Amino acid sequence: MNTFEHIYQSNEIYFRHARGNHLSKGQKEIHPFHEIVFLLDGDVEFVSDSHKEKLQRHTLIVLPKKSFHQFIVRCEESGYARCIFHFDGVQGLNELIASKTDGVCLFRDERVTELFLAYKDIALAPFSAKEKDALLYAFLSLVLVHVHKADALPSTPSAFHPVTAKAIAYINNHINADLNVQTLAQALRVSESYLAHVFKTDMQVPVYKYVLDKKLSWAHEKIQNGASASDAALECGFNDYSGFFRIYKKTFGFSPSKTPRIPPNF
């Protein structure tokens, strides 16, 4: 199987066209930025807080920042090929971005498919950086416009065990609490071992990893929006600031004080 990874990045938008599962290993399940993934090919199962299903070719997945997700490649020989956008604020597009980033959404739309098939090799195009920047902006703009007008596919929460669904809801509603398998099991009135088993089976990650990544993403966004690191840590349930500092820096690659801030009204 021919594997590759072609990347182009402007000041505000990152784009990758890749084939091969090994290129995505080590990816975080929760990001501090918005992500759009378009599946070109592959035997892939998608898992999020609201979806658990095998993806069809040419499915578009919109992943708001802080949303848990996993792409599980079931067959390495299937040739996992995808296009990926990463972005946060993009000048001139923030209203469109906000309209479709309030929850994980899946789409299948012929016009969106045509766009990705036409622009997927933008990183290899024989244009200057300024021309590629303009094309990348136009590409993302067109995708957002079509997604804005399209109807999302229905979510599949029934695919989860009821205990998993209740655990996810509890975590999201108590992000500032001391959350672990023990406290969650007590709140849900199930055994710790049972909760750990069904949650890992459904979500493909253990409870502690899911909780930690959720808390870190919430803290990151709070700091981006102007909160102090200590306040963000406390508001997200980190009572030990030194521990929060270490894991934050390890996760994001920079200390809380170095977190890029989002300008007001951006």
Outline the structure in words.
The chain is built from nine helices and nine strands. It has helices at residues 94-99, 110-119, 129-149, 162-173, 181-188, 192-203, 207-224, 229-235, 241-252, and strands spanning 4-9, 13-19, 34-41, 43-48, 52-54, 60-63, 69-75, 81-87, 105-107. The chain has two domains: 4-149, Regulatory protein AraC (Jelly Rolls, Sandwich), CATH 2.60.120.280; 160-256, Orthogonal Bundle (Arc Repressor Mutant, subunit A), CATH 1.10.10. The chain is of the alpha+beta class and 266 residues long. The mean pLDDT is 89.
How many beta-strand segments?
Answer: 9
* Unreliable runs: none
Q: Order of helices and strands, N to C?
A: EEEEEEEEHEHHHHHHHH
Strand content of the residues, in percent? Answer: 15-25%
Number of domains as seen in the coordinates: 2
Question: For the residues shown, what is the average pLDDT?
Answer: 89
Cα-based radius of gyration, to the nearest Å: 19 Å
Number of helices: 9
**Fraction of helical residues:** 25-40%
Brief summary:
With 266 residues, the chain is α+β, with helices and mostly antiparallel strands.
Give a topology summary.
Elements: E1 4-9, E2 13-19, E3 34-41, E4 43-48, E5 52-54, E6 60-63, E7 69-75, E8 81-87, H1 94-99, E9 105-107, H2 110-119, H3 129-149, H4 162-173, H5 181-188, H6 192-203, H7 207-224, H8 229-235, H9 241-252
Antiparallel strand pairs: 1-2, 2-8, 3-6, 3-8, 4-5, 4-7, 6-9
Helix pairs in contact: 2-3, 5-6, 7-8
Distinctive features:
about 270 residues, alpha+beta, Jelly Rolls, Arc Repressor Mutant, subunit A, 2 domains, 6-stranded antiparallel sheet, 3-stranded antiparallel sheet, about 40% helix, about 20% strand, globular
